[in-house]
Amino acid sequence: MHSRSRWLRRLLWTLAVVVVLGLAAVGGAGWYYSGLVIDPVHEAGYPLEVTAVHGDEVTIKGGADTASPGTYGLTWADGNALLGPTTAAGAGTVTRKVTRVVRGELRPGVRAYLDRWLWGHATPAAAGVPYTDVTIPSPLGGLPGWRTEGVSRTWVIAVHGRNGGPGEALRVLPVFHSLGMPVLGITYRNDEGAPASPDGKLHLGATEWRDVAAAITYARGQGATGIVLYGWSMGGGIVPMTVRKLPGEPVKAMILDSPVVDWRSPIALGAEQMGVPGFLVTVGEWVVERRTGLSFDDVDHLRHAREFRVPTLVFVDDDDATVPPGPALRLAEARPDIVRLVRTAGGGHTGSWNADPARYERELKEFVTSL
């Protein structure tokens, strides 16, 4: 009887230890996965290798999107080139036309990445648009940015994506410059060179909207009477959060490119691509909320679709492997009265311009002039 009782106690203790260790492992995995979502990253990765350069053609190895149709940049640590169409594809390699080497030496052995921004973290000068460096006052401190010139009193405020920078807006600057509209390219908390948030974490738009609000205040102080908010990726989630939080501000329109309308969707997609079990995704989301104080329901703009009142232009690419286009498509379905939807294919995440620059710029110009 006593030996049976001892055996039962040992079994219960063993089960308790297993449960505690299991919970610790799950909690640790959830903590790690949450960090992939909310920890800022500013290191550039160079997954591609230049294997050959012949005349006006370059052969590159690696990556899953190097044959994407359209116009791209090829950016490496100390250089940049503009790429045209694919001319050949081999076993793990792609050969593309080189439109122009902007800076540096394009040679075999260079490590680079396919650059949808075209010029990487450059200034408007790369796009041939005059600009001035500015500092935008905010509650956390000065936010570095730049401002292009224009005669219009309607300004565009460009809000880049996660771990990005103002250079994401360079592709569209010539359109606004031709319309005489100033563009304010901003940084926000936790960007490189910008003040950190109190906890040093990304809040997926739940607090970053305050920095866009600071940019609106700055623009108004410089004479702007109307504002167009333009956001890419995470910036496309920050912009509608700003509009929801500041209904009285003179925001005339939103332009959203591959926007994160609902954060649960890209987190789930990223987990699937990494082979993370579904239950850990839920744990990771719970940990994100506890570590930051944000609510995934609050940053789900589809849930708040009826709150929007301003004309909205949305670009999505059907081959986006980073932010699923579904939520943005459902936002367009929910609000056909204000949303103008443009769908492309082959460009990938924030690559609608790259896939078809002429169409993108035509849609952009028609939308803006209709305001």
UniProtKB/TrEMBL annotation:
Pfam family for this entry, one: Peptidase_S9
One GO MF term attached to the UniProt entry: serine-type peptidase activity
Keyword ATP-binding among record annotations: no
Keywords: Membrane, Transmembrane, Transmembrane helix
InterPro entries: AB_hydrolase_fold (IPR029058), Peptidase_S9_cat (IPR001375)
GO process terms (BP): proteolysis
Peptidase S9 prolyl oligopeptidase catalytic domain location: 199-349
Transmembrane spans: 12-33
The protein's name in its UniProt record: Lysophospholipase
